[in-house]
# Entry
Amino acid sequence: MDSEKKLFTVSIYTENNIGLLNRISAIFLKRHVNIESLTSSQSEIDNIYRFVVLVTVSEVKIKRIIKQIEKQIEVIAA
# Structure
């Protein structure tokens, strides 16, 4: 696959639980990926929150990161 770095926007829908943002940011940290921007807000659905993360990585790496994020119990979709 392509190893060229590109800017990706990752939207994560999740329940609001203590420590989840820390666990999500740790996934990026373990892979030495710098978070360029992070925004959190309540989504259109009650009790569901949205994190929008901007990162510059290769397509291979972002796919692996998304798989790890989706393994978090509180994450509904990434």
